[in-house]
Amino acid sequence: MNKRQKRAKIIASSLQLFSKHGFYKTTMRDIASNLGISEGSLYTHFPSKMSLATAAISHVTGKLAIDLRYINSKPISATKKIYEFVKSYFSFIQKNPEMVEYFFQVYLSNREIFCNEEDCGFSLAKEFIEELEILIDDGVKNNEFTQENFFIAFSSIMGILGSITFLHSEHVLEKELESYCEEIAKAICRTLN
Amino acid sequence: MNKRQKRAKIIASSLQLFSKHGFYKTTMRDIASNLGISEGSLYTHFPSKMSLATAAISHVTGKLAIDLRYINSKPISATKKIYEFVKSYFSFIQKNPEMVEYFFQVYLSNREIFCNEEDCGFSLAKEFIEELEILIDDGVKNNEFTQENFFIAFSSIMGILGSITFLHSEHVLEKELESYCEEIAKAICRTLN
Amino acid sequence: MNKRQKRAKIIASSLQLFSKHGFYKTTMRDIASNLGISEGSLYTHFPSKMSLATAAISHVTGKLAIDLRYINSKPISATKKIYEFVKSYFSFIQKNPEMVEYFFQVYLSNREIFCNEEDCGFSLAKEFIEELEILIDDGVKNNEFTQENFFIAFSSIMGILGSITFLHSEHVLEKELESYCEEIAKAICRTLN
Amino acid sequence: MNKRQKRAKIIASSLQLFSKHGFYKTTMRDIASNLGISEGSLYTHFPSKMSLATAAISHVTGKLAIDLRYINSKPISATKKIYEFVKSYFSFIQKNPEMVEYFFQVYLSNREIFCNEEDCGFSLAKEFIEELEILIDDGVKNNEFTQENFFIAFSSIMGILGSITFLHSEHVLEKELESYCEEIAKAICRTLN
DNA sequence: TATGAATGAGTTTTCATTCAT
DNA sequence: CATGAATGAAAACTCATTCAT
């Protein structure tokens, strides 16, 4: 296994544990033994626990950004793009629940972990947020979406998706997550229209 | 100062610090010295740090529930109730930013703090959620809101409010929070209608 | 035992172990168990291992400065003061070998421990060095000492004392330390005259 | 580069870093990367970090011994030999400050590094100390130096030189080191006479 | 022989909780 | 009841040394 592969494995393990038990309740020992390696070995690849959290969030938002960028590139209406995004996002949750949970529960919430003087850690998600901005702008230009404040549009999309993600991870939803896909997309579009 | 008042003071102090620095970065010493009392004294009123977090969340959701219950009791349309709720919620944020931040950033995110075998900590917000359910049900019964899945309706309301709260606490909003009130309420209603 | 007494006990224990095994080979656990207290207890009184080293050196140089100040205040010749200082210093070694060993072996050598940006740790010994300067200046003013350069005079006194201290702590001296007192004082005076 | 040359290079690098940052604050990685080689490679040439420290001190005292042996072989008075030794020592400091600093600040001070059950690490400097003994004995035999205890004579020479070396390495001397040469030699001789 | 990732014991430090005063 | 020193069980991180490639 080469260095890049090892890093990827460590990030995957961290993601899993951080999302399950939270950043603070996950110890470096937990991550190491979950991988069957020594604690010291972790430090060969990442200089600190915080750098692990950072690498993990970059990984997650990078993945989300790639999916959204692909959807944005399609020659379809903005409304259709919202549908596709919700679908793609739901399938992403199914395949990588730990990634999305990590995004919402660790990154968005334990801000103190990611913030330093210069950068409040937001730049880590920049790629993804920019792509979302493109999607919204497109919709407004096409007159599909009401000209509206960006922050409200952003909240309508990510707030609703975040909330349903939360309910799903709390196991309070009655049906399969994917069965809400259509309705959620519709709900989001209603807000934007 | 009697026992109840003392408890209230301790909860207020905890809320302030938990919301600012997070649950884990706030020490019992921080809470005590913020109040000018001893650490030992804290334990006369609360048996553990966790119990402080729990009492704090009950306090916050209790307050939110009271406001919403009052709105629900009014002889107005469900749509109007949504407007009133958003307005009341925004004014609540202005007056008690630490309470709302605590709700979203500590309670919803550091689930591991509140969960034990029997209870996943959700019951703490039960009062408030039940009140929200009443509001949604009313709207559906009156045919103001489309008959819809509760979870989606819930996400439309609390997701959007949560997201805008987050953006506000991150200081990325361009205008005063209250100036978004009308638009946010409209956006939520569009989803529900 | 009050707080000041406890601090003094901890400093004494640290001094003993630092001088015997060096700063780096002495662990906080060693210091704590040498005192029969817990590691955490150490941190109630001193915020870090480094602060212990600093408190220890201040303690030692303070003691040395007091002795020398008293000698300086006497109405005797500078040459006689040198004799008295050597005598007092030797008796100090007998009573507190760990203090002097600490001074020479830890303080003078592990400079990296005591240095920070502003202060290179020398100020900790300032009191003592200033008193030594007074003694030398007196001798020069009285025409007892011809050696005018302070640094050479300083080295003649402290270098010779330091070296004999070192040989003593290495157990290579053949006779009792105090039996060298007279000769050492003479040797120092010969250099200064 | 042959094996001996490689060893020499490693010793030089160690000496540099040990004298600058101390034995404990210098890691094997530091030494290796300072040389542009791998950590493992270090262990092909030296079995442990301690063996590096030992080899380094032998190297330094060996160099000093050679210089002093050469001076001792000259057909000149003991007093003149002291002058020559001080001159040679000062020029040695100028050319190899790290060697002398290492001798005084690591070897003489972190005794715990060099000591084991059998040998307290003193033998490493034996060659040099023996040569110094020869010089002192010569002076006594010629009636140039007062018959005196060896340890006091030793301290007069090495103590004064050590102290001035310390002040030099601390950058507290006002003039160039070499400008003190004559006076220091005189001061030492006054003690010995 | 050279490499450098892996190891794991050891170190400082933190902090919720307890309890003697 | 209030206090705050004491506790001790972790936790993050370090680094000399080893060993497979």
Automatic annotation (TrEMBL), chains A, B, C, D:
> Pfam families recorded for this chain?
TetR_N
Supply the PROSITE patterns for this chain: HTH_TETR_1 (PS01081), HTH_TETR_2 (PS50977)
Instruction: Note the InterPro entries from the entry.
Output: DNA-bd_HTH_TetR-type_CS, Homeodomain-like_sf, HTH-type_Tx_Regulator, HTH_TetR
DNA-binding region listed in the record: 27-46
Q: Domain of life here?
A: Bacteria
Gene Ontology molecular function: any one:
DNA binding
Question: What's the protein here called?
Answer: Transcriptional regulator, TetR family
Would the keyword Transmembrane be found if you checked this record's keyword annotation? yes
Q: The HTH tetR-type domain covers which part of the protein? A: 4-64
Q: Which UniProt keywords apply?
A: DNA-binding, Membrane, Transmembrane, Transmembrane helix
Residue ranges spanning the membrane: these are 150-169
* The keyword S-adenosyl-L-methionine belongs to this UniProt entry's keyword annotation: no
